[in-house]
Design a protein that fits this description.
6 helices, 148 residues, three-stranded antiparallel β-sheet, mainly alpha, 2 domains, elongated
């Protein structure tokens, strides 16, 4: 049975608009932006996917997500981000367990109640782990040190 190629006109159809996109380099696959999954490019498969429970629940979560996001921080955004990165780097440099960051953040807020930066810290284990992964990807300079 021959495979069907992706058709650009599907992107304009009501059933597929907003969530369907073409997979680069593969004319026989489509990608669902909601479910983050690759699909076969057959109309019946795409229609069935659009009415699947996983997809409809994902769409509902996606439309409700903006209301669940915390409000943006005031002016000190860069300072808070910088503090979170420096705290994480400190823990790694001194071989302190990342698990301590949950308690350290609370402690800093308690010790420095007048500090806007400390009060805005939202650093936990998961975020600290992600920061460490990104620090490891920083390019090295000719002398072997990383950019700061």
């Amino acid at each position: 049975m021959p495979k069907r190629k992706f058709r650009e006109q599907w992107l304009q159809e009501e059933n597929f608009r907003g969530w369907l996109r073409k997979v680069d380099g593969d004319d026989y696959s489509a990608f669902c932006n909601v479910c983050k999954s690759t699909l076969v490019t057959e109309v019946s498969t795409l229609k069935r996917h659009s009415s699947s429970r996983r997809h409809t629940e994902g769409l509902a979560r996606q439309t409700a997500a903006p209301a669940a996001q915390p409000p943006p921080r005031d002016g000190d955004d860069d300072s808070v981000t910088r503090a979170e990165i420096k705290l994480t780097a400190f823990l790694a440099e001194h071989n302190v367990s990342i698990n301590t960051v949950d308690h350290l953040t609370s402690l800093l807020k308690d010790i420095f109640p007048d500090s806007n930066i400390a009060s805005e810290l939202s650093l936990k284990r998961t975020k600290a782990t992600r920061i460490l992964g990104n620090i490891g990807k920083l390019p090295k300079l000719e002398n072997g040190t990383r950019l700061k």
